[in-house]
């Protein structure tokens, strides 16, 4: 952390470490609400209560700001634990995903995945770490279960993960807002049912 | 096709039936690209090459325009056929959904589902027919399969449909844009694998 005078900020004031955190939070929140079309440096600055200059110093473009904001908070749905029991771990992951979708971070990630379809040249770069983390988790995880004899070696990591994450996303998208609380409250049971279905073909 | 003088004499000009179709198409396209935050009457009018007055005459608010535009084109992913064979019909539905997601209409519907989470008071109304159609299809369809003895009567229509539609949406969202063509080309096989997994627990 430098205490030397800064170029464009008010002279002599020490750097405020909370500026970065506030800006990244505001960026995630704003993007989850309005998407790329409304994602401007002005709007982030105003929501975060930071100066625009402070934003541009750290992130010269809004792509960089968004990419950092999304990457900064670890994707909850791919942070798998390995307890040695496949079903338990997948249920924990599924339950975490249901919770995550009800946060700005989860919504922002889903929105980014959708909007990368529309603005690939701008947003595919921000999506790449998310895609890679997801694919790597699925592979590592299923490989471990195969090595423990809990899955046959023909099991497709992506198909199993697509079915779990997909079923939860679909249920989330089709649940009216006034039933969000009851979806959250029932997340343990939903996670069990979804994982049960995804693993059913393996006996 | 009218041959009467146009442009400067709006009064008395016969209604142009193509105005409505152009406006609805433009609304779906625009919404799929920019979302609610950029969805304005101005932008729809300009894309559809129709006057703003013509839009407001038909749809007094942008909610009404969007709801009509989305409802106007039938959701491809819920138009099930009933050939008597459950697996074949679900595969046809799944394949249709993969195709639909690669169109503005499919993207617009997915975006609407996401944005209804953020602006429920504005967009839940537009989502209601989509939710109802989806739930009704799942129930009718699974009930028919149960009555033919193709599924046990404990089978959950929503879980089966969530797994199929969800897995496809998840695969779509995680596929980089430069691989869209190959996802489309492989849609028959993907549909088979996803339906196979969703039905695996029923033997």
UniProtKB/TrEMBL annotation, chains A, B:
DNA-binding listed as a keyword: yes
Q: Which UniProt keywords apply?
A: DNA-binding, Transcription, Transcription regulation
**All copies of domain HTH tetR-type, residue ranges:** 17-77
Annotated DNA-binding ranges?
Answer: 40-59
Keyword check for Membrane: no
Q: List the InterPro entries hit by this protein, alphabetically.
A: Homeodomain-like_sf, HTH-type_TetR-like_transc_reg, HTH_TetR, Tet_transcr_reg_TetR-rel_C_sf, TetR_C
The protein's name: TetR/AcrR family transcriptional regulator
Upper classification of the organism: Bacteria, Bacillati, Actinomycetota, Actinomycetes, Micrococcales
């Amino acid at each position: 952390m430098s205490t030397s005078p800064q170029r464009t900020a008010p002279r002599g004031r020490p750097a405020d470490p909370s500026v970065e955190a506030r800006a990244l939070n505001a960026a995630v929140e704003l993007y989850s609400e309005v998407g790329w079309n409304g994602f401007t440096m002005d709007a982030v600055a105003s929501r975060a209560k930071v100066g625009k200059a402070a934003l541009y110093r750290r992130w010269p473009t809004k792509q960089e700001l968004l990419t950092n904001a999304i990457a900064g908070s670890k994707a909850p749905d791919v942070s798998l634990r390995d307890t040695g029991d496949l079903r338990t771990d997948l249920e924990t992951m599924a339950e975490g995903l249901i919770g995550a979708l009800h946060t700005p971070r989860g919504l922002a990630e889903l929105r980014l995945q959708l909007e990368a379809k529309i603005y690939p040249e701008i947003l595919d770069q921000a999506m790449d770490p998310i895609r890679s983390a997801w694919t790597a988790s699925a592979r590592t995880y299923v490989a471990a279960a195969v090595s423990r004899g809990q899955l046959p070696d023909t099991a497709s990591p992506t198909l199993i993960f697509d079915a779990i994450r997909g079923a939860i996303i679909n249920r989330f998208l089709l649940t009216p807002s006034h039933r969000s609380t009851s979806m959250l409250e029932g997340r343990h049971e939903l996670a069990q049912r979804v994982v049960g279905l995804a693993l059913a073909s393996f006996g």
